[in-house]
Amino acid sequence: MTMQELETRSDLSRFVQAAVERLQQSDPELCRILQDEYERQANSLTMVASSSIADPSALICEAMPTMNVTAEGYPGARFHAGCKHIDEIENLAIERAKSAFGARFANVQSMSATSANEVVMFSVLQPGDKLLGLDLDAGGHLTHGSKASISGRVFDAIGYGLTKTEEIDYDGMRALALEHRPKLIICGTTAYPRRIDWERFRAVADEIDAYLLADITHIAGLVVAGLHPSPIDHAHFTTTCTHKQLYGGRGGLILMGRDFDQTSPGGTTTLSNLIQKRVFPYFQGAPNQSAIASKARGLAWVQGAEFKEVAQRIVSLSKALAQAFMDKGYRVITGGTDNHIVVVDVLAAGITGVNAEKALEDCGIVVNKNRIPYDVKPPAVTSGIRLGTNGLAIRKMQPSDMIECVDLIHEVLRSLQQTTDTSYRLDPELRASVTRSIRAICERRPISTYPAPSSWS
Ligand SMILES: *Cc1c(COP(=O)(O)O)cnc(C)c1O
Question: So what's the architecture of 305-456 in CATH?
Fold first, then answer.
């Protein structure tokens, strides 16, 4: 179909319009909640580092009739008929994933980064084998060996940590690797504001003949934009989700660079073939084809000119945000940031992470409580908050806006009266006035890719 035919036929826009109308009429209860959520996002300042504001062109792919197709298998080798276009979509997603990351291999079927990580672990490890991952407290992810996840139950997980200056302790990691000789080393983080030195990890992995998994879920967008070094040819496997910094639908990717055709453990196939088999049928059945279409769209968008600017803004806003907190006397973990993440020690200001999170949410500022290095509070309480700028960058905020945001955050935290670690009082007038200011900022800096809610006009 040509572009002109596409425009005149426009069956998809009629489908979407009719679908929304049908939802309004047949299920007003659900429709009202969905509308409320659209408005909540428009009216609040979302600074959750693990979220973003997906491009609407990626979101709409999730609503397409591709969902109706059951397509177990891979392009050209399906267990069902009717997959011609499904194959085209998946091949497009694979090509775009490879070009975005300069990868030699991409599997786009994982439903999440969690399952992508599990696929890699179960490809190269046997139950009881050792793995070495960054501790949760140090900014690692649950799937990197925490006892709360299968990764820390089925495998014998050892954790490395941070130095006194709160940066990854590469020497300590190497010492642990030499002592325990794990079969897999995992790098990549969820609350770490600094650059990661992939080469140093690979050098250690090579020293002990281990595999290296780089989980770039948080920084995938900066990697595509060239604002963070890429692990693709340093790690044997690179995983990411597509909904944090790739601004696409929910799901995971497994990527490989120069090691893609290395022989698998046991020598029966290649590493990349092994990954294919572990995704389907070992862990999953039919993939979510609409999510794959959405991944394809997000992957194209992050390679475009618009995203170059967004990525630069993510970093400049983050640096300005960290500076604004420090100017107000807050302790910022590592004293700054190189990526989109800022972690603030709010307990040093007398407030627990959970109370700060709740009080800020009362005022339309969405951040999340987070443990800080050597945290003395349990995970449900924490001593810190983690902020991120993925959502602010889509609002085309300027570094100077970060001062205003931190002023408002400071006003809330200063006025909060903490009664216990998990309860507080906040003056209703202050809450109302900060909420008004946040709403004004949101209207002044609307989500640039979404239509404003009708309640604004
Ligand atoms: C969020 C996150 C994950 C899990 O992503 P899901 O797609 O939600 O499962 C994995 N690894 C890291 C580093 C993360 O930050």
Answer: Alpha-Beta Complex (3.90)
